[in-house]
Amino acid sequence: MTDAGEGTTRSDATGQGGAPRDSGARRLRLVVAAVLALAIVLVAGVAVGRLSAPAPVVPGERSVEAGFSRDMQVHHEQAVEMAMAVRDRSDADDVRTIAYDIATAQSQQAGQMYAWLELWGDSQAPTEPTMTWMTRPTLDGSYGDHDHTAGAAPTDGSSAPSHTPGDPMPGLATPEQMAELRAADGVDAERLFLTLMIAHHRGGIEMAEAVLARSDDRQVGDFARGMIMTQESDIDAMEQMLAARA
Asked: How far apart are the C-alpha atoms of 224 and 109, rounded to whole Å?
């Protein structure tokens, strides 16, 4: 009786009792196979997508983006020089603070544009007269000559600032003005710095608007828009400082 009972129990485990276990194992193998198949499909899809996606366009040696990056570095370098000059010649906290902010921000931005040119494989030295890029057609093709009157402009290309190649950059201080700033002191230095830097910022904004009208590079566009916003804020602050010293 005991043997029969034990035999029945073993038969149940390997017969009727074994069926659910075998079925569960088969389901597990099917699930694993399905997951592996899905993973293969996803990997293949990503690979095909990458192969079929257009390669990113790198701005060339004579592109608007490269020209802007070279010229704006020079423009920024003068702003840093002016800012550091007035910090040595003024005890006014407001002027010294904004001068430090300008020097810090524009040094960082100049480094960023230097890095772009390195990444793009473009030379740091200009390959054509300065500001030539600013005579190039706008994105909508509505303007490309350099007889157009420069000035504030929308960023849709309908009335973009232009420039004559080789002429001084917009807002750039002359060597005589820089010498005058270095020779000034106290309130005279502050007034001269504020006057020159307001004009310098306005010229920088004009250049930023010009690249926005001519480039669809997202990185350069974000940079130019951020620069415009910062420098417009600086101009408002500096105009108030200048009025207080009238």
From this structure: 10
User: CA-CA distance, 158 to 117, in Å (whole number)?
Assistant: 28
Domain boundaries, the chain: 2-52, 64-244
- Do residues 166 and 67 make contact, with C-beta atoms less than 8 angstroms apart? no
Residue 89 and residue 185 in contact, taking contact as beta carbons nearer than 8 Å:
yes
Give, in degrees to the nearest 5, the angle at Cα 29 between 23 and 31: 105
Supply 182's token pair.
Answer: 């270095």
CA 46, distance to chain mean position in Å, is 28
pLDDT digits over 64-109, tens only? 999 999 999 999 999 999 999 999 999 999 999 999 999 999 999 9
Residue 185 has pLDDT above 60, yes or no: yes
| Rounded Cα distance, 128 and 106, in Å | 24
Tokens of 243: 């009025």
Would you give the DSSP letter of residue 135? G
For residues 169 and 206, what is the distance between their CA atoms, to the nearest angstrom?
10
Question: CB count, 10 Å around CB of 110?
Answer: 19
- E strand or H helix that includes residue 208: helix 186-214
- Cα 61 → chain centroid: 18
Q: What band does 140 get if pLDDT is binned at 50, 70 and 90?
A: confident
Which residues, including other chains, have CB under 8 Å from residue 124's CB and lie 6 or more apart? 70, 114, 117, 118
May I ask the CATH class of domain 64-244? mainly alpha
CB-based contact 173:184 (threshold 8 Å): no
